[in-house]
Specification:
The protein has about 210 residues and is an alpha+beta fold. About 20% of the residues lie in helices and about 25% in strands. The protein contains 6 helices and 9 strands, in the order βββααββββαβαβαα. Strands 1, 2, 3, 4, 5, 6, 7, 8 and 9 form a 9-stranded mixed β-sheet that branches. β6 (about 125) and β7 form a beta hairpin. The longest helix is centred in the middle third of the chain and has 8 residues, at about 135-145. The chain is globular and about 55 Å long. It starts with about 30 loop residues before the first strand and ends in a 15-residue tail after the last helix.
Amino acid sequence: RRDTLSGSDMAGADDTDADDRNEDGFLEGQFLIAMPSIGDSRFRRSVILICAHSSDGAMGLILNQPNDSVTFPDILRQLDLLEDPQIELPRAIEAMPIHTGGPVETGRGFVLHSADYFMRNSTLALSAGLCMTTTLDILKAIATGRGPEQTFMAFGYAGWGPGQLEDELLTNSWLHGAPHRDLVFEIDVSQRYDAALDRLGIGAGHLASEAGHA
């Protein structure tokens, strides 16, 4: 029986507030915004929420790559969750979009959500009222109407080894800045890149001359 959406150690959860974990200059809980100079086409015009960052590396979820090959009901069926007699999916839940969170472990799922849903030892508090849960319990909660008010579901993640993200920042591959919940839950996926730049007060035409931080 699968009890988690993700087996990634870097996506492990606790209930410590993210603001207490950024004293060493790590970017956990912040956004990354791809610069035009980024060398990997998989991250072109991507906006990423960094979910974990330490001296051991970093992991995050791309927020603006839709995954049209699977639906939420498909996922519930694959996990044998639609057999639960309590589950009668509202139309809005059936249509919940699924995203590609990154090129690593694309079969593993992650749910970002509002802080009104929290399971001790299962939910990771990030920042700006954002949380992440990777256990099947959250899918059951969503499907039965007991889930968080706002959700973002993705398969796969972006990962960096020790020092790799820092090196990419030094080579001007990324901007970074404070997170905004509307970029995760409300703004249309096709508009999130430009909206993220707007939050930094930067126009796309000025990116080439910008430094790798905000």
